[in-house]
Amino acid sequence: MIQKKAESGFYQLSGRRVRFEELAAQWLHSIAQGIKESTLAHYSYTLKRYLLPVFGAAELHTLDEQRLEQGLLQVIAPADDSHKALGTASARECLTMLRRICKYAAHLCLMRPVEIVVKPPQAKEHAAQPLSAQEQDSVQVFILRAPTPRKLGLLLQMQMGLRIGEVCGLQWGDFDLEKGTLSICRTVSRIYCPNGRTKVVVQAPKTKTSRRELPIPCRLLPLLRRLRGVFAPSAWFLAGRAGKPVEPRCYRKSIQGYLCRAAVRRVHPHALRHTFATTCLQAGCDIKTLSSLLGHADANITLKRYVHANVEHMRAEMERIFACPQVPCQQSIRGRRRKICV
Q1: Deepest of 25, 47, 74, 87, by most Cβ within 10 A of its Cβ?
Q2: Is the full-model pTM beyond 0.90?
Q3: pLDDT tens digit string along 187-226?
């Protein structure tokens, strides 16, 4: 129907000859005020790295469904080995961005509306395995032996569900040790710059729901009070000073070193957040509360990404639900039969 409407003159194009790269830059500028700096940098990188080499020089009026879909397949799996074949997430992101730019072009009457149908590569299941109860105990024993703010950051991820960028963005003023609460107000990340370099930025949390106030577990409060010392409220929690925060890339290396010294398998820092979600759920925490603790806008995200069931928990649940009924002994059955016959 869209194609028939276009052919019948329902969509009156402006007739301007605009190249894809010009429109992409205009689209990026139009949305820049409504997104975070890190998101804008990511969009810019995706355009420059993947979409513009294929579509950049093409004029919009020449882009139809066939050319767009063939070009996108070239972006996902380039024949010239200009980059590695894209995974599911990157391919889906390129598809979404291409659709948004084409929709923006149709809005400006530079091309007719198009429907791009490309199936991204199938996702490979490699979910991060949470730490076991024994591994969690080993990490806690290692930290309590000689606690420091950098070490305590592991427990903030493992027992409060913080992201690594949120831990790097903590200041001592975010801790209310009287009320026993922690406010998540900012996050630290390294973003791409147009000149090809990167920079560290401190910005608002990932989403609106990521800006949250969390109760601090009672076992962590004495450690925090002991480490609080004379730090100013503006001092960064990990760095211990008011200058630059510790960036996630550096803190990730510290976490790997701490796990190795605690004799625990080395996992990605995000697995500590997975550990928190799994531990809470298996302890009976409801999904809505867990979703709020993690800062998710939708409880379905919590279910799909962060909930893992281990074999021990599954066995315990199966035994609880399908417990074997007590079978009466043969003697009681015979006695019952005799009573019935009498």
Answers
A1: 47
A2: no
A3: 999 998 877 789 999 998 878 889 999 999 999 999 999 9
Nearest to 152 by CA among 169, 140, 163, 170: 140
Place of tokens 């429907």: 115
Quote the tokens at residue 335.
């006695």
Please report whether residue 11 resides in a domain.
Answer: yes
Q: What is the pLDDT of residues 38-91, one digit of tens each?
A: 999 999 999 999 999 999 999 998 999 999 999 999 999 998 888 899 999 999
- Count how many residues are written for the chain: 342
Angle made by CA atoms 129, 132, 135, in degrees to the nearest 5: 115
158/95 same-domain check: no
Q: Is 120 within a domain? A: no
Which domain does 36 fall in, by range? 2-107
291 with 168, same domain? yes
Is residue 128 a contact partner of residue 274, using CB atoms and an 8 Å limit? yes
Angstrom distance (rounded) from CA 197 to CA 48: 13
Report the number of distinct structural domains present in the chain.
2
How far, in Å, are 65, 82, 111, 113, 241 from residue 3 at the CA level? 10, 34, 12, 8, 61
- Whether residue 53 sits in one domain with residue 177: no
